[in-house]
């Protein structure tokens, strides 16, 4: 029988060297075709869960997805699709909250809630109060009610449609958008109106300034929703914008529109980080 290997003093010396060698070897790869599943990062929450109620509407006509008190026009073309919501008067803040994002889930009704579900919606419209009814008997959007009116496509993600008027919980979250902030210019003569849409981060807009290539920065006023206006002759000038949201973050977009811009055109600027 041959003598055993690595016996005696030599074994004692080589053992730690062999262990060190093995530890420095690269890990063994068994396959080069394995894939990993990536998940989007979690949303950033801007508020705690709060109670409210929600109803829905069914858009029987394609024109029902156009318009709204925020002024976004065609919601599909504006990037919001059907993931939208109209808020009651106590939440709408006279349009300042337009563009903000909420996470909503159904609660307290095991008959109609779909367990473990939620939906993300953007504010695009206003649910007008009806003071012909008490706030607890028909006046669902009256002060002080906190009420969400959802398209049925969003409502059915969290509850069965038969639920009608459902107790929910909501919390505000940071918005995620594709591309940059959009500036749609309209008006006539020295009256210039700019619709600001596709805003990420807080999603809303609290102040706007505009600058022509031959002017300083000019404050714009909120006309309605997220339509902002200024009285100034800015034609034949490249336009820059400063947009501030409710979380005090500001984005500067220089020379967004070239000097040959025209009314009716839309331009894309920088975006808030999320």
TrEMBL record:
Localization in the cell: Secreted, Cell wall; Membrane
Protein task: Causes loosening and extension of plant cell walls by disrupting non-covalent bonding between cellulose microfibrils and matrix glucans. No enzymatic activity has been found.
Residues covered by the Expansin-like CBD domain: 190-269
Lipid bilayer topology: Peripheral membrane protein
Gene3D superfamilies membership: Expansin, cellulose-binding-like domain, RlpA-like domain
Keyword Signal belongs to the record: yes
Gene Ontology, cellular component aspect: extracellular region; membrane
Main localization category: secreted
InterPro entries, alphabetized: Expan_Lol_pI (IPR007118), Expansin (IPR002963), Expansin/allergen_DPBB_dom (IPR007112), Expansin_CBD (IPR007117), Expansin_CBD_sf (IPR036749), RlpA-like_DPBB (IPR009009), RlpA-like_sf (IPR036908)
UniProt superkingdom: Eukaryota
Record carries keyword Cell wall biogenesis/degradation: yes
UniProt protein name: Expansin
Family affiliation: Belongs to the expansin family. Expansin A subfamily.
GO biological process, one term: plant-type cell wall organization
Signal peptide (from-to): 1-31
Keyword annotations: Cell wall, Cell wall biogenesis/degradation, Membrane, Secreted, Signal
């Amino acid at each position: 029988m041959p003598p055993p290997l690595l016996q005696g003093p030599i074994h004692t010396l080589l053992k730690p060297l062999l262990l060190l060698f093995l530890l420095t070897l690269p890990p063994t790869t068994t396959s080069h075709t394995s894939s990993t599943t990536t998940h989007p990062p979690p949303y950033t929450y801007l508020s705690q869960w709060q109670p409210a109620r929600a109803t829905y509407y069914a858009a029987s006509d394609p024109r029902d997805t156009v318009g709204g008190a925020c002024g976004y026009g065609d919601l599909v073309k504006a990037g919001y699709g059907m993931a939208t919501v109209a808020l009651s008067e106590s939440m709408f803040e006279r349009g300042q909250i337009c563009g903000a994002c909420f996470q909503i889930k159904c609660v307290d009704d095991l008959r109609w809630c779909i367990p473990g579900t939620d939906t993300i919606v953007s504010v695009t419209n206003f649910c007008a109060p009806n003071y012909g009814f008490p706030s607890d008997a028909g006046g669902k959007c009256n002060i002080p009610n906190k009420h969400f009116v959802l398209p049925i496509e969003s409502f059915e993600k969290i509850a069965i449609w038969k639920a009608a008027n459902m107790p929910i919980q909501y919390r505000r979250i940071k918005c995620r958008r594709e591309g940059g902030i959009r500036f749609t210019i309209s008006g006539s003569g020295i009256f210039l109106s700019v619709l600001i849409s596709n805003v990420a981060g807080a999603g809303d807009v609290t102040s706007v300034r505009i600058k022509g290539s031959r002017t300083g920065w000019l404050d714009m006023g909120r006309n309605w929703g997220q339509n902002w206006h200024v009285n100034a002759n800015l034609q034949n000038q490249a336009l820059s914008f400063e947009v501030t949201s409710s979380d005090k973050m500001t984005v500067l977009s220089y020379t967004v529109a070239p000097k040959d811009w025209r009314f009716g055109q839309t331009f894309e600027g920088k975006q808030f980080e999320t």
